[in-house]
Prior knowledge:
Helix content: 25-40%
Largest sheet: 5 strands, antiparallel
Number of helices: 14
Radius of gyration: 22 Å
CATH superfamily of the domain at 107-309: Transferase(Phosphotransferase) domain 1
Order of helices and strands: EEHEEEHEEHHEEEEHHHHHHHEHHEH
CATH architecture of the domain at 107-309: Orthogonal Bundle
Amino acid sequence: MPFGCLALRDGRTYDSMSDVTDKYEFGQILRAKEFCELCLAKDRQTDKVFVCKKFLKKDGRKVRKAAKNEIMILKLVNHPNILQLIDTFETRKEYFIIQELATGGDVFDWILDQGNYTERDASNVIRQVLEAVAYLHSLNIVHRNLKLENLMYYTENNHNKVVLRDFYLSRFENGPITEPCGTPEYLAPEVVARHRYGRPVDCWAVGVIMFILLSGNPPFYDETEEENTDLHNRIIFCRIVAGDFEFDSPYWDDISPAAKELVCRLMEVDQMLRITAQEALSHEWIAGNGASEKNLKDGVCAQFEKNFAKAKWRKAIRVTTFMQRLKNSEALTDSSAGVESSAEAGEGEGGISQGTSDDGEKLTSDGGVTSSSVSLEVTVENTSTAMSQDEGAMTGKEKQETVNVPVGPSVGTSPSDVQDPIIQTCSIPKTVQVEPVP
């Protein structure tokens, strides 16, 4: 047995805390959550600085599975546009994940700081994202949480290299996936409609990112209702399912036809017809001369500041979507066998389950939201600093034994259940029962 390790009765070997502290010196805390702490870690031998995530096992089974899932995925990937795993430790009480430290800041902030910003700059960002996504897809890995907030530059001095972060929700596509997870504005139609889905959801998300980078606006929005209300979310999701987005003037007047064509192919509603990441890399806007060199900074940055000032994308708030309400209401009438099946679904290894957000924050009873009352809980993160890298969306499976939030009209509710003219106009099928994750 290695020195400093502990062996339990089940035969498993654990690291001791001295193994961790002898190798790394832990410094500034970047973010502290109820059970997930993000801090800097300096290798004592090389003096190199990394970022460390610490998870406390005592905070529950869902937290332990979240840590295991990210470790499993990061151990398998090795790509220049993905923050690499450096080290992992498992003690009797904690998980430690040591990763590369990206210091270049968010792509969003970089755009705001530039004097000149063109389609070519956006094309360079999207190309690198597509290369990383194509690599993940070649390994049958679905990221499931691609968004602008999860992109950052690797170093301050070189803004040519973009890296992906946040692999809490990633999973292997070893069969059709049905569990809903992601950040609302980036969800693909098949996820919203609770259909079986796979790698094409990542390509849809890349399309949303591209849309934002070129116009400063989200493709799906509703300004008539207060944000994060049930009606607001219903309208957004209905538009996603219908693929109802437009190249509004004046924001898209100077955007090249090639860019618009690629956005449309990435955001194709039919996932079977949607362009793949590998195919998109050969598109003329990425590989050719389709990207314009006209300066877009004034228009794009004005919209960025407008939308982000409204906290539509970056404010750390919990959004209980109307999609979960249907599942909760159905849970009230489900048989006990159905409840047990749903509980089993929450134990899959494919990603974080209900009861936690992907930054390691427990859901509390504040506002009536509890770990057993939410079937799709989404966090839109605040990434104003380069280090806040672990907030995002969470998955949507739970035991559904109690419902502490008001049950309202939902996607998939038949007219006989709820008379809601907005929902009746959406061709969203009945909610599919979440299957146990292999």
